[in-house]
Amino acid sequence: GAGGWSPLVSNKYQWLQIDLGERTEITAVATQGGYGSSDWVTSYLLMFSDSGRNWKQYRQEESIWAFSGNTNADSVVYYKLQHSIKARFLRFVPLDWNPNGRIGMRIEVYGCTYRSEVVGFDGKSCLIYTLNKKLINALKDVISLKFKTMQSDGILLHREGQNGDHITLELTKGKLSLLINLGDTKTHPSNAQINITLGSLLDDQHWHSVLIEHFNNQVNFTVDKHTHHFHAKGEFSYLDLDYELSFGGIPVPGKSGTLSRRNFHGCFENIYYNGVNIIDLARRH
């Protein structure tokens, strides 16, 4: 209508939900009060969701962010988000409003279409990528992906070598572990195994991002915005790894003896290995 959104009851339990129709990258929001009224919101929370069922609150500087709203009915208060949101649904939740009026909002959302490749795993499958040997750079490896799941355990990534060397990225009890195993302890006695764990409650059915960067023997492991940097011993740059990466599980159960853990059950988005779009390759066979 002409005035904007104004619920019948003004209390902390009201919210306005927007369905953008598809997953969208949201970069900014703006608000006004109700047209020609004394109804405006002075502070609000922003929540977002892909499904309309599981909601996440917009955070800034690691804390839930309350947006300062309006001080009158007609001035526009515009916020460029510090980091963009990728979601289909948005919820504006009023926290405070004009004490001499009611909750009243007009809203604008800014953003653009979000292009993504998504693949689902049923807990019994995996996606295998065989590398082009000509394109392999022994000194640099970059793997990035997003995942979401309700399962607390599962293999996200595995790469194995002839002599027992392997790299495994595994979800265990809702945390992500990067295990680098230099199989032959006689050859690498001082550095047989590296195990880094990051994140928690990652089985919350929201998207989480993972980045693994390996330059020479420097490794950066990032989950969402938290990075662990570590320096492996010299032998790490000579890991005897096959030209094959598996996502979502280990293709041959028990191939390395100890690895008989659960396959991943959930979704992956935008899997990249050294700039190669793995999901797009799989779609095009």
From TrEMBL:
<comment type="similarity">
    <text>Belongs to the neurexin family.</text>
</comment>
<dbReference type="Pfam" id="PF00754">
    <property type="entry name" value="F5_F8_type_C"/>
</dbReference>
<dbReference type="InterPro" id="IPR001791">
    <property type="entry name" value="Laminin_G"/>
</dbReference>
<protein>
    <submittedName>
        <fullName>CNTP4 protein</fullName>
    </submittedName>
</protein>
<feature type="domain" description="F5/8 type C">
    <location>
        <begin position="1"/>
        <end position="112"/>
    </location>
</feature>
<keyword id="KW-0472">Membrane</keyword>
<keyword id="KW-0812">Transmembrane</keyword>
<feature type="domain" description="Laminin G">
    <location>
        <begin position="118"/>
        <end position="285"/>
    </location>
</feature>
<dbReference type="InterPro" id="IPR013320">
    <property type="entry name" value="ConA-like_dom_sf"/>
</dbReference>
<keyword id="KW-0732">Signal</keyword>
<dbReference type="InterPro" id="IPR050372">
    <property type="entry name" value="Neurexin-related_CASP"/>
</dbReference>
<dbReference type="InterPro" id="IPR008979">
    <property type="entry name" value="Galactose-bd-like_sf"/>
</dbReference>
<dbReference type="InterPro" id="IPR000421">
    <property type="entry name" value="FA58C"/>
</dbReference>
<dbReference type="GO" id="GO:0016020">
    <property type="term" value="C:membrane"/>
</dbReference>
<dbReference type="Pfam" id="PF02210">
    <property type="entry name" value="Laminin_G_2"/>
</dbReference>
<keyword id="KW-0245">EGF-like domain</keyword>
<keyword id="KW-1133">Transmembrane helix</keyword>
